[in-house]
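Comment thread on ticket #2218

A.B. wrote:
> Attaching the input chain for the structure job we discussed in standup.
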Amino acid sequence: MYQRQGAAAYKADLSNTWALAEITDHPETSFKSIHIAGTNGKGSTAHMLTSIFMEAGYKMGLYTSPHLVDFRERIKVNGNMIPKQDVVDFYTTYSEVWKDIKPSFFEMTVLMAFDYFKTEKVDLAIIETGMGGRLDSTNIVQPEVSVITNIGYDHTQFLGNTIPLIAGEKAGIIKEHIPIVCGKMLPEALEVIKSVATQKKSPFYTSDPKATISNSDLRGDFQKQNIQTVLRTIEVIQSQKIFYIQDNHVKAGLKCVKSNSGIRGRYEIISENPRVIADGAHNSAGIQVLLSELKNERYSRLRIVWSMVSDKDVNEIFSLLPKDAIYYFCKSSVPRAMETIDLVTKAKPFGFTFSANDTVKEAFSEAKKESQKNDLILITGSFFTVADALST
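C.D. wrote:
> Ran it. Output below, let me know if you need it in another format.
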């Protein structure tokens, strides 16, 4: 399971996925889809699109990763998680048949989602890649439109250590003659994607920075970029005359993303007095956006509950973090998580004020105990940090 294990679970080809698709009678061909890749913002974009189509009356499938509290968060229809019995039934039906394939957790989950969407006869499924694009297990779908939200440095050991290399991997979701929509990104990334789109004769669109932004219930100025990408995607879909979306559907959908889709862990306000915000930022670009949003907050002291996975560039990320915050370093409950002692060792040269804790639960508890009502507690560093905090 890549979510828990990291590099040891990564499989850099689609042979297993295609084999599973064959066994399950190619469920990916039974529904229309929008396929989304990107370094940051793809989850928020996926949930926004889902909410808008739901407001228009369509039955919507949604596949995302990672999950926070319940595995079934990954597979939803109209905002409702796949029933437990359906998970059990899928596994028991196929587990013996695919023994020789030895699928990864992610490969199995993707086909489970596609099979469920087929059974539920969804009108449209929004499919988020797990990592990269070209070799991601979700890349067996033939979408109505492909979307790449942005390109930044993440998973460089698999996707490459330059922006053009990473962009090339994300651009792997572009299909022949299928429109591609790009969010705001670096020119060198956009150039790569545009080149691939040209080769594949795929209509190429960028998000419109001048688009009128409707209010969303997802907090953060950074969501404006995601909304711009969503609006362009809706325009492309409307031009295909397959789905009927009106402006009122867009406005209502953006205002009800949380209630319609059940999204969590994106600048989520958990409680007040003290104010507690949970955000799954886990790479440099995400941290920069999060810290920019924090400038809009008013507080006496900033307290950060921090855990991260061991395959990230710690020094680069730590160089971005505020020096005047109080840190509660800890280890989230996944094998990929960096040990607290390693976090502490790497943090010392940066001059942080910190305490060391064994678990996220302990760190969160200590932060709350030491906080005054006007303080701000930020839980971040990875979605696993957020997941553990939400589970307490």
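A.B. wrote:
> Thanks. Noting for the ticket: Residues 1-9 have pLDDT under 50 and may be disordered.
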